[in-house]
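dumping these here so i dont lose them again. two proteins, back to back, each one seq then structure tokens. dont judge the mess
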Amino acid sequence: MFLTSADMLLHNWFGIVILSWGFYSTIQAEHPAQHRWNKFSELVGEDVSVLQDNSAQEFRYRLPTYIVPLHYDLFLETQVHTGNRSYSGQVSIELDIRQQTKTIYVHSRGLRITTNELYLRNTPNNVTFLETLRYVEDTEREFVIFSIRRAIAPATYTLRITFEGQLHTDEDGFYISSYRDANGTRKYLASTQFQAISARSAFPCLDEPALKATFSVNIQHHPSYDAVSNMPVATYAGGPGYEVTMFETTPRMSIYLLAFMVSDFLHTEDYEANQRVFARPNAINQTHYPLEAGVRIMNTLNDYLGLPYNSYMPKIDQVALTEFSAGAMENWGLCKYREEYLLYEEGVTTYRTQTTITTIIAHEYAHQWFGNVVTNKWWSYLWLNEGFATLYEFMAADMAYPERQYRDLFNVQIVHRVLVSDAEESTRPMTFSRGATFNAILSLFDNIAYSKAGSVLQMFRQLLTEPVWRSMIRAYVERNEFGSVSTDEFVDAMIDATDDGTDLLPENIDIESFVKSWVDQPGYPVLDVRRTYRGDIILSQDRFYSNKIVNDDTTQWIIPYTILAAGDSLHNPLEWKWFTSKAERIPSPAMNDQWLLVNVNQTGFYRVNYDPSNWYMLIEALIDDTTSIPLHSRAQLIDDAFHLARSNRLDLEIALEMLAYVRHEREYPPWEAANRAITYFYNRMRGQPNYVSFQLFVDTLISDVFVMVNVTSVTPDERLLDKYLRQVVSSWACRMEIESCLSDTRIALEREVNGEEPVHPDVADLVYCYGLRTTSTTAFQYLYSKLQASDNRGQRSLLINALGCTIDSEQLSAYLLTAIGSELQVNYDPEERYYVLTSVLTSREGVDALIQFLFENYSYVTSVLGTNILNSLVQAIANRTNTAAEEHMLNALLVVLDSVLPASAIANAQSTVSRNLAWPSTREGVLLSYFLERFAFQPV
């Protein structure tokens, strides 16, 4: 699954990832739900300690184990076509009661129960009415507790409940949303989002993932609308003014995967593949690529796994929704997506968005096996769902489109990012629970469940080798199909796959211990490789923290590693070695004057540190011949060196020397690693007296690559990774105000404004952003009109952020005011209003304009977007405050906001600014300045 929405900003923020340093906001190829808990905690301010306390009470919120659902017959009636939120329904739940009891528990949230009846199910076609039950509602635990007059014996029973409800407006549960058709008329639809525990808000049920059952769904609606669900339509019925769509019975499945939608959407279809893509009628022309990608990816996964999808389900549909908090969701047979994560418009959609669309489809389709056929027993094992989906998000997309090299994005977009967050003291293990409440479960949808799990599974896959891994995961799915799993079932499959005499692990180490050293412990190790230069290497491991070195930390991992020495072939398979203690001495495979490299191509989920001599030999090798080091190791060396230096484990000068080698680099992954390091220093150097030296440093790094790229045009046969490379290098060229970059983007933008030649979508964010900075007001007005005319969500996001790039104070002021315009004046949705406010943060002029805007309009931001959004904006301004003058402006704003924001928010902003202002005199700041003074500049 993955998660965005206006009303759901307070607990489900995803969507466009706004880079704090960048000129554009871009949909990353990584799965956006990785940021679910980060945004939840940031915007709501949920105290993690409260959630941890909740975990101790988890079983108060869990259903008793003697009640097991077998089948649901669900009938719903909705008048959503009129915009009416009221609906009614009836559900008959077939229950296996496994012990004598006088009590039946059912989940319910916000529903009104009107009648109930309990039946004894003698045979499938013979039921006996027993009684109408008394009940109480426990709203805190979201239970309806039915009391039976006389205890019933273990048997099969049917509980029939009629109920009434209201379609939600928060994009959760059974909810109402809308869109505007080609004539501007608002049209309504009803859809669902049940993961994790919101099926109970749509109808009374037993809402836990391990309680699998079959479902028969029938929906009554207006004849002008259609209903879709997990299964194909079985038949239709109806009468004057209404229609009932009846669906075939599902296989045994978790209730959170149940899905349906009532709308006037149209669809495109591949009959042979039994796939359809649904969208609003005025966007149906954007469904052809997702249909093609869906068919390709499904065929790829069928072949790869050897377990055909149609052996479990007869069809799969994809739906593009204008309002969908989850971003995307893997409902079995009915995957749902935010529009910008599914729809593709030729000549409009960028290569980055196409990457996101393709990898998100691969993610949700991988879930059809990993999550749907086999489901986590409880949310503490969510990583078994999301880790597999994150891994195959890239692998399946790569196998379906090998020419695009999606696999080469995995390390820089998944592994590197989670290595940062998993180095915090507050990180959690992969297997973990904070409780059974809505917020506690929601908090587990974080980058540990997604990115860390995917990274660790990638390590396991490469360790086992591809054939053994495929055999293992096939057995894992087959053995547990239609069931639920924990770590134990995964370990069992791994044991069986290697129980053929394969000498995988060292003596006295078993598979379970190996797997659980990664799954059950928080964080990850740094492997310290210290050469004696007398023929030995001293290996040691320690937990890596981003902000401290802890020598007494007892955490220990079973670490697989590979070693490559200078002169070794890059094409021969490497031998796996094992490190199972805190420290040991091993023979060195390299001569004293040769470099060696550990964790080749960053297969293992950990960082590696070397002694200074080996670092310098690696740097020299990269300068002499970048290809002497494997591609993903080059990216890892930059990323590791930067973060090791930031944690005081490595001299910053070594990290900067490693970073400087990228002037010789021609591949995207190392450049993306460098990009993040340069960004960190840029955010701290901007506004400082020696910022010019930093500009010259960046100019030198990009100069040789920049002269090779065309900033404003794209060739038909251009590699995907070269597009990524051009965008990274060109964006720095323009940000560093290199004249040719600014003039090229201005000319390209003016050519589009004058109707001469449209800007290619793959360079549009760069051209629009920087072209605006040196061209006339006409171009700004043109792009704003283009935004107002567009109904393509991806293009709208691009244009919103491009308009925020202007540095003209009048344009900035006018643009920010559109964020508070009425719906008649602007066609933003509430989430886009927030994007407008954050889009200006790409320049100091924009930050100043936002401060002035908040001075005058903070009450609107508070009343419409909420105090937490106001706080988020203030913290963003604080992050970009580097000088005393800028601090003075922010403090004046904080005085005005003192009565609106909590004292802790004011203190956090002031603390951030204090750290920023103190940074030049820190060890890191002084070392960087010293390095820049001595660096041999080669400006463009």
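---- next one ----
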Amino acid sequence: MDETIHRIISSLQTHHSLSSSPTPISSQTLSDLQTLLDNQDIQTLFDELPPNNLSPLSLLPPLTSALDSGPAHLSLSASKVYLSLLLAPNSPVFTLFTPMAFFSLLRSIRRCFKNPSFTPPDKRARKKKGGGWAGPSRNQARNAEDCQAGEEEGERREFDATVLFCVLERLELVLGLIHLDRFPDSLKSLIQTVAEIPVMAVEVSGNSGNFSKLCDLCSRILSELLRPEHGDQTVSAAEVLKSLSMSILLFKSQARAFGVGFVVKRVMGMAKDSGEIKKAIVNLPKYLVHKAPEKAEGRASAVEAIMEIVRAMEYEDQIGFVEYVVKMTQGKAQLRLLAVDLVPMLMMSCRDPLGVNLETGVENSWGLRCLEALVQRCSDATAGIRARALMNVAQLVGFLSGDDRCWEVLKGVMKSSGMGMNELLRKRCTDEKAAVRKAALVLISKLIALLGGSCDEDVLKTIGMACSDPLVSIRKAAVSALSEAFRTFSDDSVTKEWLHSIPRLIADNESSIQEECENLFLELVLERVTRAGHTNFPNSKSFSNDPTVKAKSFEREVEFIFPEGVLGLLREICNSEVMPWVKKICVSLGKKKRLKPKLASALQNIIRTSESVWLSHSRPIEKWTAPPGAWLLLSEVSAFLSKAVDWEFLYHHWKLIDKHEPDGEVRSPFQQGFADEDVVGTYESDSVNAHVKALRTLCKRKALTIEEADGLVKKWVHQLLSKASRVLDMFMSKDSEGNKDTGFLTPPTSGIKKGQRAAADTTFRLLSQAIIATYTIGSLVIVCPLADLKAIIPVLHTIITSGSSGPKLNKLPHPVDSIKQTAPSLYIQAWLTMGKICLADGKLAKRYIPLFVQELEKSDCAALRNNIVVMMADFCIRYTALVDCYISKITKCLRDPCELVRRQTFILLSRLLQRDYVKWRGVLFLRFLLSLVDESERIRQQADFLFGNILKGCYGFTLLSLHKIHSNR
């Protein structure tokens, strides 16, 4: 031992002689000092120092030099020796402890985490024998194999992790001896160093156990520094929390868990016994707000950390922070965005946000102030804030719906607080930013059940237009919102908007939307019809005895029987804009075998019940018509559910038609005024289609071979065509006679008036039959394209040319008065039927396509123009070369005065363009540009959608080709 002391004294004398430029203490001297300290013989060294003109203070220069500039392993060893000297019995603590030496100690600790040999484990190829912190089994440091020239061998060593742990453990013990209240700078530097150790250690630690132990040591040291012996606790706590904020705000880091955990578990516990520490902890969330990152992920992590701290606070302190956040909503953009994210978290974390348990009432609740502030941010000038606010309101609504009392309070607040939600939602659904539009639709989905009652029609239309948004995500959100409204409300406005917006998405270019469209139609339409059709219907006697329905009319009584607005739903399916998509969906569902026999049974029950109620009112059966849409839907699903359609049911209704047809009493809904502004597609049309399809199916099932089935079909098709031809001839002859009889008459007598009324009734019946006969001809042509139409085509030609004039047309036999004026419904139906015939006969199509284009240009009937546009689209697919030269004329309908015609034209032409049936892309594209400024918002939305796809290359366009087209034109 004397030899060890002698070596130490000799080394100190050497360093003392070089006091002008102190050098780091040697490894041997450090080892000797540590040996003395471990054997508790350090007092012997202190006793030998004065005789050799040395003092304990002589130890500081070489130790400090080693702390500042020595290699990592030497620096840490010096730190351990220095702290051990301070802890030694009878040590001259205040002689050895100086702020400068303490700062050097802290720098030494920092440097060990920045040592070049400490490369993070994920950035180096670890060898079996190296890497990471050396564990307890590796007490000797290893030399690096490749040292740079001139570099000390020890500089590339990896120190033993246990040495660092010893240093920190001794540092904690030293703080029990030395109170840093007299050294505020040392206290501040120590706090900052210890708070940063977990952050620095994450980058180099390859051992979770080592990291956990390191965090535990740091937690103990920081807890020690919060004691009043080290100074004003308010100042100390503020400095500790400020230093920890860096780790608290880290994203995806283990150090974040350390920072938050220390605040929540250690500091919060100490704050209960110290008002000074509580004051600091209350201000921490406000400080973190101003230090939160701007990027989305970092901001979300900061919000989560802040909320963990706020949840651990007392209720009064939580409310204080809530008030601060509400003020933030009126601050700078970054603070507003953070406040928008904090508000829902606060309302979902703190108790009783809406004051349902307070005597002061909801009006004074802090949650209501938060909600109002959040709704205001839904109209923020910054798009990102608007989107986040809308999404967070939706999140809050969903959360509060889980508590019945909060749900009722929220409903009352939304209805009576004047927040103007409907107006807000309308604006946000048409926002220029896609994220805002999507968020608004999500909010609508959540609010539908909350607001109750009827849904705002303007909001409904806005959602319907969003179903045609260029972005897939927004279309999906709009579909979800509108479908949620349809589930909740059964009024006609919701039904109409849903049917006009959702079924058409079966033709969407996104397969997931097509599938969702099918699923929703199955759930919200077909299953609803199925439920209604299997309701326990009362018999006819019960109707007359039931006082609640006794005074009702037939229409009201039928509506009363069927729940969920099913009759209105079926009625709207007949709309010309809805019908094609319904048929397409039914075909798709049928091919996938998703149609259930119960659906066909339900539709038959609905028709039977309607007939039963009609008879219970003692009305003549010949004037009865089934609920509109029932036959249409039954005809579509029966192709896949033929066994579910009862033969007696079909036979019964077929007999009704045969029995009352001679009297012409099977009435058409067009019989009163012939509302030709609507596209022809009536109950009789549905009935005709259903029976034609049923007959074809029966022929195929009855026949043993395909040839025999075709023969049977041709047989009854010929019979029906002959009968239809006779009906048309009868009407045409009667119409001609009527024209002759009413040529130049003097004012008639009363007797003549009676004769005229009888003649008018006869003409009316013949016209009704002629319309049905004309439609039947078109249906038969589809079933049997090779049918003989020689006797029918001249009659149809006469009808469709009755409004024309010219040298050739004047030679043809046609009525004096134009059928176009006297029977506009028949005129429209004749064009439709001729179109179907042309689709089956190419030679006839070549002759008549110019007439279709001519009528399209000159017709003053919007319904007819709309129908011809649809037919021209079919012609373009079947006879592309024939129609291609007329595309520029068809595109003129994009400026048609009727919004329906413009929209139909736009949709059909865009589909033709997508399927590459149109060659005149330049003209078509330039005409489409006009739709971007159309007065109809729905058309503008569809135009935006089209051009969004064009720019994505969906239609084979490029920006360069568009530029060339524009230049050439």
